[in-house]
Amino acid sequence: MAWTTPEFSRRDVNASGRFLIDEQTNSIQSLQHALEIVNNWRSSHAFPLNTMQTYLRSKSKQFDQRSLVSQRIKRLSSIESKLCRIPSLKLTQMQDIGGCRSVVGNLRHVDELVDVYHRSRIKHELIRENDYIANPKPCGYRSHHLVYRYYSDKNDIYTGLRIEIQIRSRLQHAWATAVETVGTFTQQALKSSQGERKWLRFFQLMSTVLALQENRPGTPSTPDNRTDLIAELKYYTSELDVINRLRTYRVVAQMYPMLKDVRYFLLHVDSENEQTIVKGFRSNELNVASNEYLEAEQKLRGTHSGDTVLVSVESLESLRHAYPNYFLDTSRFLEEVELAVSDNSI
User: Fold this and answer.
1) Other beta carbons within 10 Å of 338
2) Most buried residue among 61, 105, 186, 264 by CB atoms closer than 10 A?
3) Is 253 helix (H, G, I), strand (E, B) or coil?
4) At what angle do helices 170-186 and 197-213 cross, to 10 degrees?
């Protein structure tokens, strides 16, 4: 298949990234050109991302045959949000334009998989590592991140592009997808720690509850004492009517007719009409998929009516499990909440 290659200088890419978030922008023609450059830059990550994902998949299966490995190109809205939050960041320096993730059964599998990378002899350069499991983010997010600078001694056209690998347990995945689901329905950027204080606090507390199950440190600023932890969790669960709200957060998936050998999936969640639209593309249709992805994102710019993302997973069957937030499915997380608040030991 024909992979997208970088067509613009890094200087032009960085300038286009700044242009997207310039509030003074009023030229539609200039904006379209900037979007073209940004889309080419992120689409160029598909080849190195596929290489890294293939390795991640093969190693994940060694420890957990039920592991979920997926890859995605960063959403335009996420790129803009990150550039706004970090004014000094250049688009070409963004480490997670291309990202792949492995969700494994437990933390033993996480540790084993991370150790494989530490001992591997792959040519790509490990330039950053963040253990958000041992040192969770203040919001409660947990995962192990490895950022590589891609290298090829055969074709240097992609050399230097950065790919982020995330490795997490199923419990950590349930928490992360619940944050995104609630954020979508309540139209808050909870994933970026922005939004209603009560919701942010609730997810901090649940992060600690789940961490204790996996014998890992609690989230900063949450109670060390389990009695106090569960008491506060019960308060926010009741105050926000969490259980009833999560039970109603469901959408019906509308599938385009799926061809054989589908490799990429374009997901669009419409929270207002409570449906997710799924369209599949073969491996040789990546450029078509990338263009449709950009068109869908442009329609959503400046609105809060939904979300869209282009992803790749092993099969249609694993799509819902790998991206439950795009089907607004919080069933696993809901089970954990109900179990925690049913604790009558306090």
Assistant:
1) 14
2) 264
3) strand
4) 170
Give yes or no for a contact between 117 and 128, defined as CB atoms under 8 angstroms apart.
Answer: no
In tens, the pLDDT along 109-141 reads: 999 999 999 999 899 999 999 999 999 999 999
pLDDT, tens digit, 9 for 90 and up, residues 289-341: 999 998 888 887 766 666 788 888 776 667 766 776 566 678 899 999 999 99
> Cβ distance 180 to 97 under 8 Å?
no
Beta-sheet strands, E only, within 283-335: 306-313
pLDDT, residue 153, reads 84
Q: Which residues pair with 102 in a beta bridge?
A: 69, 167
Cβ density class 129-147: b for 16+ within 10 Å, e for less: ebebbeebeebbbbbbbbb
